[in-house]
Amino acid sequence: MTVPGLLPPRYLLTHAGVTLRLECIFPGDERKGLVPAYHFRIINEADEDVGNISFRVDDTPHLIHFAGHIGYAVDPLHRGRHYALRACRALAPFVAEIKGSAIITADTDNTPSLRTIERLGCQYLGNSPDPASVPKISRGCPLKRRYRWTPRPDDPAGA
């Protein structure tokens, strides 16, 4: 699926045995506050689908404070192998080209995701506002830790 104004990557997104396979380009839905996004499947060395990663390309208060530009999930059977980290690094040149930097958030108690974010070298921006104080923005999300990731386009590791 192609969306006007959003083009698929012109190059293979891969890093350390992980390849990102474009599943769809979501056009967004302004009425629902949803921004355009790229959704990829994470494929490992054995050609197994091990999870997904999304790159949201616009800004809203909800995205900046709670959802983030990057979201990932690794299937339970494949956790502990740094697939989320490798997927982010595979996505790094595309993020650098499209946005320059991205906000990544994680629940304050999600230790594996926080480790992934730290290994990426992200800059800690602080916690999100108290979700109860901004219900229209938080949309029921828990408190999040917020980071800025600025991948370098010339660094194949995306560090």
Describe this structure in words.
- The protein is of the alpha+beta class and 159 residues long.
- It has a single domain, classed as Aminopeptidase, CATH 3.40.630.30.
- It is 23% helix and 30% strand.
- It is built from four helices and eight strands.
- It has helices spanning 61-67, 83-98, 111-119, 135-138, and strands at residues 14-15, 18-26, 37-43, 49-56, 70-74, 102-107, 123-127, 144-149.
- A five-stranded antiparallel sheet has the order 1-2-3-4-5. A three-stranded antiparallel sheet has the order 6-8-7, sandwiched between helices.
- A hairpin with a 2-residue loop joins strand 1 (14-15) and strand 2.
- The longest helix has 16 residues, at 83-98.
- The mean pLDDT is 90.
